[in-house]
């Protein structure tokens, strides 16, 4: 095989005439180019580290300050060191061997450097103060706050991805009193009087006695650590979980809803993989357009795997990886992404994928369903990994997967949106991305790119390393590049020509004993039970969108959350604890906070709708509920949420061995309605006015509670909202399709149309 030949750098034979050494010049050339590529990356990382370290200053600014300072002093005939060199000369013998001019130059550089560092520190302090001020959230729409203008001055001309990291404030620890007050406020509409009074007593006892002691430890941690929440959140919410991460933790992202760029599987993979690798290059060079938010979650996007442990998993990240791992029909392949010292072009990647698709070799015993280990319980997988994959070729092959940039599945099924069968086609598509066959995605990998047989694609992402907006940012880049910037030929292939000498993919080799195959089958059984229980429903809502909602002077997110409350009440009658994810990336190493969307105000609106109150009364209550939701969202974003604070207090109580009935009950309350908005972050990449067909279907996740719903939604353009609803078939209380119907009804409710009519919009519900 070609790859076997290229892998041999030199050969030698021993004969009576001596040693005959035969060098393979092509192999040596590839080694040289590979090393050159590696050193270029090291230099770029070093340069980026310097640029980020001195931000908002720059090395160019250093030269300007030093040269200007020395020029001024030379013109004024002043000692640039202000006598510093003379004083140092008493203690530094080297100054005796320096001329007067040399001393002036050295003194000018030293003093200029000090001046430059002082300017940077002042600018950084001002920038940090600006980033700590969140009053801009309360400014009227369209106006530019004074802090925003100052930020434009102090943020520098060309910030890099990580430039703002050192200037971001730390997440503040809310007071015990405020957290307890907001907690009681959030549960009041969910509890009967007797239960609420009991909970009120537990809360006051905690606030007075144990709470202040636990708070002291959190304050201490907030002074010492970059973020008092994130490391515990990652460890205890994600990595210490012993159940399957498939469905329970991993989430998915879909392709375009209405556009199918090519039906050739290998070609779609070629463009998508190339676009992802270009994104990685931008990430390595810190060239992703920054915003004044924490960018730490970008770091482990590539070359990262969640490694199972007996008690807790770990995130394994390598600095660089030059290959990807590909799964097809039960076989794993290692595919190099670089040749001749450069990244493979889309047509060359298509060539590699086509070779894999044409490979007819059978999987080795146990190989076909090996990935089921990543879909089942974590402890059996940890034991199996240590017992059967810690040495020999099994370890080498496992390393090829775990140290790959990311994983790709060339799926042998066809998935896409079908206009004549929209419901079933989207359900099949969503479930395939969420869990597939339970053994054809490496669920431990940071993300899996899935290319279906008909050219449709999607992502499955592991959750512990980052939250959905980070993966969404990558996915927007891929979707924007694939059909337009990279494009396809008329025949549906990637543009360009195949490479005549490109070594082929390397098929991974395994030696999986029967005992391990039994563990694989056991994990597969657990995973299939979980996957079969998922009740999924994808609902594109195109009657109207954010354009109409904004004209009603209502936040689109608040509008949808209130509609979800109305829909859920009609399905399940009692109000329930509702989770809406909000980011806290305004702070260093921030991740998420919970917006408790079920409020007294939203409940009052729902009751008024159910009772058939007058239009004016319902309109008044809707406005109050929307304003309350926006206020809670702002509090969550600015570090004044309650759930992460309560979670950390609970962790401290466990470390101290203290039993808190209040915290125990708070953290055991089920989230029967878990919701999340998928934001469209790079709107400049998609011209949805001219090309409304280029809309993504968004993404979704599995149900959080056994008797609850998971709802993800994405607001696209002015006239489309896509909902992804999940629940469990095993629960008699839930039905995703029924809930979706009630969501549609709630959004189109007559009171909402009357709100629009009042705003002189003229929308009418059919």
Radius of gyration: 30 Å
Q: What is the terminal-to-terminal distance?
A: 65 Å
Shape: globular
Overall tally of structural domains: 3
CATH class of the largest domain: Alpha Beta
CATH architecture label name of the largest domain: 2-Layer Sandwich
CATH superfamily of the largest domain: Choline/Carnitine o-acyltransferase, domain 2
The average pLDDT is 85
Major sheet? 8 strands, mixed
Quaternary status? single chain
Catalytic activity: (R)-carnitine + hexadecanoyl-CoA = O-hexadecanoyl-(R)-carnitine + CoA
Keywords: Acyltransferase, Fatty acid metabolism, Lipid metabolism, Membrane, Mitochondrion, Transferase, Transmembrane, Transmembrane helix, Transport
Pathway: Lipid metabolism; fatty acid beta-oxidation
Active site: 463 (proton acceptor)
Structural commentary:
Strand 19 and strand 20 (720-728) form a beta hairpin. The radius of gyration is 30 Å and the shape is globular. The N and C termini lie far apart (65 Å). It is an alpha+beta fold. The relative contact order is 0.11. Strands 13-7-6-10-11-12-3-18 form an eight-stranded mixed beta sheet, with helices on both faces. It contains 25 helices and 20 strands. Residues 1-47 form the Carnitine O-palmitoyltransferase N-terminal domain. Belongs to the carnitine/choline acetyltransferase family. Keywords: Acyltransferase, Fatty acid metabolism, Lipid metabolism, Membrane, Mitochondrion, Transferase, Transmembrane, Transmembrane helix, Transport. GO terms for molecular function: carnitine O-palmitoyltransferase activity.
